[in-house]
Design brief:
The complex is a heterodimer of chains A (about 325) and B (about 350).
Chain A lengths: L5 H20 L6 H10 L1 H15 L7 H18 L4 H26 L3 H19 L4 E2 L3 H8 L1 E3 L5 E3 H19 L1 H11 L1 H6 L4 H27 L1 E2 L7 H11 L11 H21 L5 H35 L1
Antiparallel strand pairs in A: 1-4, 2-3
Helix pairs in contact in A: 1-13, 1-14, 2-8, 2-13, 3-8, 3-9, 3-11, 3-12, 3-13, 4-5, 4-6, 4-11, 5-6, 5-11, 8-9, 9-11, 12-13, 13-14
Chain B lengths: L4 H5 L2 H16 L7 E3 L2 E3 L1 H24 L7 H17 L4 H25 L4 H20 L4 E2 L3 H8 L1 E2 L2 E2 H19 L2 H10 L1 H6 L4 H27 L1 E2 L8 H11 L11 H21 L5 H17 L3 H9 L16
Helix pairs in contact in B: 2-13, 3-8, 3-11, 3-12, 3-13, 4-5, 4-6, 4-11, 5-6, 5-11, 7-11, 12-13, 13-14
The chains are: A mainly alpha (about 325), B mainly alpha (about 350).
Subcellular location (chain A): Cell membrane
Protein name (chain A): Galactofuranose ABC transporter, permease protein YjfF
InterPro entries (chain A): ABC_transp_permease
Chain lengths: ~325, ~350
Amino acid sequence: MNPRYRPLAATTLIFVIAYGLCILQYPGMWSTRILGNFLTDNAFLGIAAVGATFVIISGGIDLSIGAVIGLAGVVVAVLVSHLGLHPIAAFGIVLTMSALFGAAMGAVIHFLQVPPFIVTLAGMFLARGLASILSQDSIPISHPFYKTIMDLYYRLPGGGRLSAIGLLMLLVFLIGGLIAHRTRFGSYVYALGGNPTSAALMGVPTGPVTIGIYALSSLLGGLAGIVYSLYTSAGYPLAAVGIELDSIAAVVIGGTLLTGGYGFVFGTLIGVMLQGLVQTYIVFDGTLSSWWTKIAIGVLLFLFILLQQLVFSAHKAGTRLKKAAA
Amino acid sequence: MRTPSVKRLLSPQLVALLGVLLFNWIVFPGFFDVAWRDGRLFGSLIDVINRGAPVAILSIGMTAIIATRGVDLSVGAVMAVAGAVAATCAVTGQPVIIMLLAPLAVGMLCGLWNGFLVSILSIQPFVATLVLMVAGRGVAQLITEGSIVTFNDPVLIFIGTGSFLGLPMPAVIAIALMVGAHLLVRRTAIGLFIEAIGVNRSAANFTALRSRSLVLAIYAFGGVCAAIAGTIAAGDIRGADANNTGLWLELDAILAVVIGGTSLMGGRFSIPLSVVGALIIQAMNTGILVSGFPPEFNLIVKAGLIIIILVLQSAKLAPALHRIFKQRPVKPSIQTSEKTG
């Protein structure tokens, strides 16, 4: 097997084994209902994590995702509930705003040469602050269009529901994977993450690519905010606090290197599903307290980075041996 | 390098702090009023120092970590763990010495764990400390069993709310720690070692510097600082709240360090200026409270401040600005080495 795919294969294998063990203990977990709920409950996290994957492959970090989700939800709620706009128009406005917000962060990162950590931290404060200025409380959305979308689902054999937002997440993963692995922009992102200087020397337009990456991340953050507003039928300024870290954890568990230049969009899907699995297991168990979720995700994160470290050092040692033999 | 003291007094951070304080004074004329009551000082200015102390203490440890081109995202969670340990010791009636040392030991253990991941397993600091950031709060809740453990121990309460020589205890601890850490790094070669590791770790290794154990020690120190801050936070509210103690304070601490002029790319650092950075953040928070602005504007103002500081410190704009103000030229940033290591 191509050694490139080893971490991805390992992550997938671990997910399958973990799910298998869960089913052995609670046979009820083997049902399309659970699988359908996995997708619906983690839809916003998954969509946001696709954006985080691009940012991390490019060697950056985006701390503003959670705040953008919160802001997008509040703006949609204000536009729909207070100003009476049709949700589709509101979605268009929110997605455009989010993309511009991300593009601005990307521009600051590129033109001022400031670490993305600090720029997106400022973006996080800004977005969260704007959201709480717009509204302090949760704004309910009761538009018939929302009900229509949430009632849309595909009935899986076994009674599970593949909801519209779950399907949307899978679609985002598919498109994200195609962009990452099949387009010029995708290869630019990898090149930038591998080494920005040599990428620039090879003719990668680093400025537009950086701006594009953060615009994409915030665009998906905005989409995740819309999905979150659909999921909860409300816009809340403090929604999705800390989701940026969950999505980074999902990306890392999915086998993407935080140093940049290496990773798979599909791996992130596994990362999101694994986090969902931990939560579902704890719900099924019933005796474990909620804080075990945090500990379990921390331990998982540790195991995966350890695994990556081992795979990569084994790979390096292997190439060194080959070189020595030749 | 020794800079003339006048120039040091005019550092942009101190000017910014004075600016924020002056702004507070304009919107709230009583801002500089300090009263002496019951053997201690009272006033908005004292409040800034008192409330800013936990972040200042975190930023002291964070400065050393960031100077080695690392970061510690777990300090907030470590605060919660230390607070939970202190409260549990107080409730179970442990001797005072154990009650004070146990949180510090646990904090050091957390720091050593981070240091082990970063230094021995060479895992990227961001992910390495993310592990404890996620799991730590869970561990804290495990210790307190999900509830807020309240206590009446006079020693812990004194640490959180007492006063010494008229100054609030948290501020006294922060000042002592700052002076101690500053002397340690500037009167010995440790500061130079830290800068060497931050600029180029492999070069530092080639000069026979034991970067491995030093990085380990620095993360342990960061953990101890977080534990001190956690003990203060617990003493302040007379209880350990595993959910909220130190929540998102790691971001404030990193922000304080960056405002203090320490580069996230490692190398140049200053502990006192990081503490000034922490005071700037707290002065803004207090200013928004006393001026009667809605607290929602707090985050926007913070974001605005970061943007201003970013522009001032940016590698591209800084040389131009320095030319305008005729200060000493800044070193050109070494961009090719950013991805190595």
